[in-house]
Amino acid sequence: MSFSNATSSAPIARKADGPDPYAWLQNRDTDEVLDYLKAENAWQ
Question: Where are the residues of the annotated region Disordered (predicted)?
Answer without folding.
Answer: 1-24
